[in-house]
Structure formats: structure tokens, C-alpha cells
Amino acid sequence: MFDLVGKVCLVTGASGLIGLEICRALAQQGAIVLALYHAHGETLRAMAAESFADQGSIDAIECDLRQREALAPLLADLLRRHDRIDVLVCCAGKTVRKAAMLTGQAEHDDLFDLNVNAPIQLARQLLRPMFRQNGGRIIFIGSHAGTQGLPGQAVYAATKAALHAYAKSLAAEVGERNITVNVVAPGVVADEHSTVYTAEEQQRVCGAIGLRRPGRPAEIASVVAFLASPAAAYISGAVIPVDGAARF
Description:
Blueprint: E1 8-12, H1 17-28, E2 32-37, H2 42-48, E3 57-62, H3 68-82, E4 87-90, H4 105-132, E5 136-141, H5 145-148, H6 154-174, E6 179-186, H7 199-207, H8 217-228, E7 239-242
Parallel strand pairs: 1-2, 1-4, 2-3, 4-5, 5-6, 6-7
């Protein structure tokens, strides 16, 4: 589909619902995937043991992005081992479903730390190596909530809006160095284990989606694989909705 043979791709949140599929999609196109995860890594580690076409591979690496002092040494080690990182995909994130006035300061800080500060720090630390190699791809996983807002998840929506704005601004700053910066903004994604919505709420939400169903993680991952590939060389500063024509 998209030729990523030999490309080194760093993916955060790799053990999550969307992160797993992103790692799979990139490895299937021949990429060397450095998959950072913090918890629940069993499925990711099992995937890393699989064989992929065109020498694609997945290296599962445990890492807490909120431990900032450990991040720079980890990136330095990965750059020593692989010489370059061509693609950064920031997928790690979390949400809190709670009214704005009931969201405590600790919850607010935790959301901004993981959803905004961590991806910005990663991008900033990898820009210099990307400058030296004269090119790179930075892809943030945003959200439909970051463009439309989402009652009951105001702080989460605010973190994603901040990430969208950062990506657009950064794209204009680094484009002359052949670096693209984009956001993939999913809407509702199918997760049979999720407790975010009740069955009744899921039915009501799907009624407000043009395709009348939630998205599949693989459908998000395919857009990421496209943006990481040479086929997307002239796309930068974009927030690409992958939400099935959601109108809520």
C-alpha cells in the first residue's frame, strides 16, 4: 500500500487500541517500528514476535512518557542504535469523562502532561535529528473533540485542541527542512472493552455519525501509514478527520 521499507518509526501509546494497529500497519509496510508503551504490553509484545513482509519489525519498549528525565537518554539510545528516526507518531493519551467544574487540578494536570506536554517534548527533541537528516514525519493523534468540543470531556477536548494548534504552527516552522507535521483526528472508535459510553449512549452517538457506526482502529492506522509514506509528501499542517462524518 505505502512503501515504508527501512524507515524507522517511533510510536507512543503503542499498546493501546489505536496504537497497536498503527504499529501493525507500519510494520506491514516494511518499517522498523520502535513501539513505546507504558502498560498492558502483552498483545504488543506478542505482535512484536510476528514476522512481517519486507523486513518490517516491531520493537516493544516500556516507557512512561511523563518521566521526562528518562526520555532524553532513551531517545539518544534509540538514535545511536538506528542512526535516525524518520517518523514520529504520538498516540499516547488518556481521557477523563467528567464535567469541567468537577475536574480536579490533578486530573487536569495529568491530562495536559500526557496529551500535550509529552508529544511536544518528543517532537522538540527529535526535530534536531530530523534537521540533520533533512526530512521527517511528525504525526499526532488528535480527536474530533479537539475541533468540535465534547460536553462532559472539556479538559480532554482542550488538550487535543492545543495539540492541533501546535501541529499547525510547527508545520509552518519546519517545512523548509522537508519535515511534515499533521494530525489524525479520530471520532468514536469501536472498543468492546470501553466503559466510556453506555449501550444507549453508543446507539445515540452512532445516530449522529454519517456512516452510522464507530470507526475501526485499523481505519485510523491506515491514514497514519499514508501520512508516514512518500505519497503524503505535500500534506502538512493538516488536521485530518477520520470520524465517519460525525456531527456531534
